[in-house]
Design a protein that fits this description.
With 432 residues, the protein is of the alpha/beta class. It has two domains: 127 residues, Rossmann fold; 279 residues, Alpha-Beta Horseshoe (pyruvate-formate lyase- activating enzyme). The protein contains 16 helices and 14 strands. A six-stranded parallel beta sheet has the order 2-1-3-4-5-6, sandwiched between helices. β11, α9 and β12 form a beta-alpha-beta unit.
Length: 432
């Protein structure tokens, strides 16, 4: 029996995902050896619909939903069984069942072989659900051999833990993880790292790598003898007041860490269940990382309830004054299933679009803001992204990275990708 696992690409006007589909490699690693598994990533290759397969599994997020549906429809026309999983599927199962034979609404580590048996026997359920997130200790390693490609920024992706304790109103993670975090055995983490190319940087994919400072310190101490370089793609600002933790991160090879600042408006943070972010500590947090030689990528959201035109300008000022090395800037989006979207529905502030998934773009406003007009938010976001994504600002960030030896090659790639994304959004804006 042959199983194909697919990562759809994002829609028009969106950034291309230049990291391998780790979740699919994880599923492949859990798959019994009598099943032949292939992985295709539409971000870097065309889907080979003519390749004979018995089952197709598609991972879906809101950014990829439209392309996921098109892929699924084509396979079902050919008589192939299609199943879907992912955070979008959990939030919109009925929508996905229009295109798939079955949907998986949970983490599957402990039931994956049972699900595959059901599919192969034809006795599968329409929905697979669990009330608790499964443990992730002692599992087979992901099949990294199936996702190696020179087109990716790096092939070295690792997940230390899954989940997040926080339940931010705007975030799908709070709904998906339900405040749960599961950690792997440190020996399994080290084994996986050793199986990859030490000449490439490693990306740790956790939602919040340092949610448990003591566990994080254990991991960092275990990494020191490996002499690797790594980058954290997710951490909460409230976890980084501990200088011992930051120094251990550096000693273990940390080049850069992404921090979710979101906004510099304290009232906005509290209103969106992210009051644990203390704005008065933001500058000190960045300084703490810079002091030991770790670059900081700041993640920000524009349009949160409570934000104003002034808070957008204040956020841009902070980004410049704090000398952040890399940026992720997002227009707030009412993701399906989140408390924020439900609030918008109650208050009749959600902009309804029957082709929402087809029309999704990062800079498309899908709600009526609370403290400013729609045009003020759109203009403020456009001005912020164009200013911070300008050639001048990006080159200055790269120049500082070279001067301070803050992972200059990685920071250059990230700033070029950020600038290309901003230009793509601007081009898409002109078409709207």
């Amino acid at each position: 029996m042959k199983l194909k696992l697919i990562a759809p690409k994002c829609g028009v006007g969106q950034a291309t995902n230049l990291y391998p589909p780790y979740v699919l490699a994880t599923l492949a690693g859990l798959t019994p050896p009598d099943i032949d598994v292939v992985i295709e990533d539409q971000n870097i290759q065309n889907i080979n619909f003519d390749e004979p397969v018995d089952m197709v599994g598609i991972t879906v997020i809101v950014h990829t939903a439209y392309n996921a549906f098109k892929i699924a429809d084509e396979y079902r026309k050919r008589g192939t069984l299609v199943f879907m999983g992912g955070v979008f599927v959990e939030a919109c199962p009925e929508e996905c069942l229009k295109h798939a034979d079955s949907v998986i609404l949970c983490e599957v580590e402990q039931i994956w072989s049972n699900i595959l048996h059901d599919y192969s026997s034809g006795e599968f359920k329409k929905r697979y659900e669990l009330s608790e997130r499964p443990e992730i200790k002692g599992l087979p390693l992901p099949r990294h051999d199936l996702i190696q490609n020179s087109k990716y920024l790096t092939n070295n992706l690792i997940m230390i833990s899954k989940g997040c304790l926080n339940r931010c109103q705007f975030c799908t993670g709070g709904v998906h993880w339900k405040g749960q975090v599961k950690t792997r055995n440190i020996e399994d983490i080290i084994k996986e790292i050793k199986s990859l190319d030490p000449n490439e940087p490693y990306i740790f994919l956790d939602d919040n790598l340092i949610w448990n400072p003591e566990f994080a310190k254990e991991v960092f101490r275990a990494l020191i003898p490996l002499n690797i370089q790594w980058i954290c793609s997710g951490a909460c600002v409230d976890s980084v007041e501990d200088m011992e933790l930051i120094q251990l991160a550096k000693d273990s090879g940390c080049l850069a860490m992404l921090l979710g600042f979101e906004t510099v408006n304290e009232k906005t943070l509290k209103a969106n269940s992210k009051g644990f972010n203390k704005v008065e500590n933001y500058y000190k947090t960045v300084d703490n990382f810079h002091q030991v030689g770790i670059a900081v990528q700041g993640s920000f959201i524009f349009g949160l309830d409570g934000d104003t035109v002034d808070s957008i300008e204040d956020t841009v000022k902070f980004i410049k004054d704090a000398k952040l090395d890399m940026l992720t800037l997002n227009m707030l989006y009412p993701y399906p299933g989140t408390p924020f979207r439900k609030k918008l529905e109650r208050e009749n502030r959600l902009i309804v679009d029957e082709k929402e998934w087809e029309n999704f773009t990062y800079n498309r406003l899908m709600f009526i803001p609370e403290k400013m007009s729609s045009q003020e938010l759109k203009d403020g976001f456009r001005k912020a992204t164009m200013e911070l994504g300008s050639a001048k600002e990006c080159s200055e960030r790269v120049a500082r990275a070279i001067a301070n030896d803050f992972a200059p090659e990685y920071i250059f790639k990230q700033n070029m990708q950020f600038r290309n994304h901003v230009l793509s959004m601007e081009q898409n804006t002109r078409k709207l």
